[in-house]
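Example record used in the benchmark description.
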Amino acid sequence: MSSKLTSREKQTQQLILRGLSNQGIADELQLSINTVKTHVSKVLLKTGFKNRVELITNKINKL
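Model output (structure tokens):
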């Protein structure tokens, strides 16, 4: 996808890549769980991945 991630979405993506759960991301960024779910959904939509596993696997394969 060509949509760029916002700064908050980039932060969320980095925490996903560190393996944090939605609750872990919420705690780290001091956000509500519903806000985190929205950010995770947008990250996946904008990057074209179906789920966290695809996102993480893609990043690992690029190393």
